[in-house]
Amino acid sequence: MSDPSQPSIGRRGVLAGAAAVAAAAAVPAVGVGRAVADTGAGTRPNILLIVTDDQPKHTEWALQKTVGWIADQGVRFTHGHVTTPLCAPSRSSVFSGRYAHNHGVRNNGSSRGLDQHTTVQRYLRQAGYRTGLFGKYLNSWALADSPPHFEEWALLQPGYVDSTYNVNGTVQTINGYSTTVIKNRTLKFLDKAATDTRPWFAYVAPYASHGPRTPEAAYAGTAVPEWNGRPSVPEADRSDKPGYVKNATGTLADGKRIRAEQLRTLRSVDDAVQAFKDRLQALGQLENTLVIYIGDNGFGWADHGWTAKSVPYSPAHEVPFYLSWPAGGLGAGVNDNRLVANIDIAPTILDAAGITPDTPQDGHSLLGPYSRDHLLVEWWKQGSAVGGPPTWSSYVAKDRQYTEYYDLTTDAAGAVSGSGQVKFREYYDLAGDPYQLTNRLYQATPADEAALGVSALAAALAADRTA
C-alpha cells in the first residue's frame, strides 16, 4: 500500500506541438495542449527557477539576453502578477503555490510560518531530484540555518559586494559581486549533471534589483534609455486616494533614479542567465530544462508618489514572468495573455515533473488550459505604527480592480488582529484608466456602485480571502 505522506510520481510525457505553439504566437494563448506518452522518469525535465528581487515590469531593456532566450523562444506572460507584493510572502507563494492567507507568511518577519512540507523543493527532492538554492531565500530566515529540502546551497545574506553566505552549512564571507558569486555557484551545480544523472532543480535568486541597487563595477554609470514617466508619475491630484497615498512624496526625478539603478543591477542578472544558457547547451540539457523567470514583486517609480512596493497599484504587483521548455513544446515564442501569478509556479513545476501534490495548492499549472477571470492580491500591515498602507486585499481582473482597506494588522509572527472593518475602497476601470488615476468609488452614489457591480465584487473578494 502506498504511503499517503509521499508525493505521487506520475509517468508523464512531454508536451507536443512546438510548431503549433509557434503558429499561435500572434494570438492570445489560452493553454497548450499536451500529448502524454509513457516515457518514464528519464525524461523528467530539469527545473531552473530564477526569482529576482523587487523587479517591476518594463525592465526588459536590461535583460535582452534573458528575454531573447526565455521569452522570445518560450512564453512571455503578459499579465504576470504576484499575489502579495512583498518579498517573503511572495517567495513563500512561489514555493508552495498558495496564497499568503493560506501559507501563513503574511509579512517579512514570519518566514518560519511556512510549512516546508508544502514546498516544491520537498516534492522534487523526494521524487529523486537533485536540489540547489543559490541567492536570497526568505526574509527573517536565520542565515546559519540550512534551508530545508535543498541538497546544496549558497544562501545569501542580502547584499551586493563582499557579502556573507551560508554555503552548505558554513557561514562565510565571499568576496566579489553577489550576482556573480550566485552565478558561479549555480554553474558548479549545473556542471555536476555531467556525472550525476538525476534531474535537478535550481532555485536562483539574485539580490538585484533590490535597494540599495548597487551595480556591478562594469555597469556603474551605464547610460539607460530616457524615461519621462507615465501618467501615474507622480499624479498631481490624489484627492480620491487613501491617506498614505495623499501623503506620498515621490517625484519624477525619484522615479527616474530608481529605474536607472534597477536597470544597471539587472544587467548583471542578464549576464548570469546567458551563462546558464551556455552551460546547459554545453551539457546537452538545454532542450529538457524548464526555465521560469519572475520578479518576487514589482516596485513603484513614483507612481501616485509611491517609491516602494506593498500597495495595490499595478506597478507593485505586476512583474516580468517568462517560461521556456523546448522539449515540452514551449520553445518557439508565444505571448500568453492569461491572468497568471506566482502561485502558479509550483503547480507548473510539479505538473512538468509528473508529481501529484498531497497538500492543497491555490495556483494552477500553466501547462494546461486553466484560465482565471480574476486574481486575489493581498497585503497586511505589520505593527501599529502610523503611516504606510493599511492592510488591504484586491480583486484584480484584466479590465477592472476593486480594493478594500481594513482595520487589521499582524504581529511579527504573522498573527492577525483588529476589527476587520472596511476603512476605504477603490475601483479602477483598467481598460479605460490603466494608470489608476480615477477612483470610481470616491464620492460614488449607491446608483454608481450598483452600476459598477460593487456588491458582487465585495462578495467575491470576501470569498477569495477565506478560500
From TrEMBL:
Residues 45-355 form the Sulfatase N-terminal domain. InterPro entries: Alkaline_phosphatase_core_sf, Sulfatase_N, TAT_signal. This is Sulfatase. One of its GO terms (molecular function) is hydrolase activity. The lineage of its organism: Bacteria, Bacillati, Actinomycetota, Actinomycetes, Kitasatosporales. It is an enzyme of class 3 (hydrolase). Keywords: Hydrolase. The keyword Hydrolase applies. Its EC number is 3.1.6.-. PROSITE patterns: TAT. Pfam families: Sulfatase.
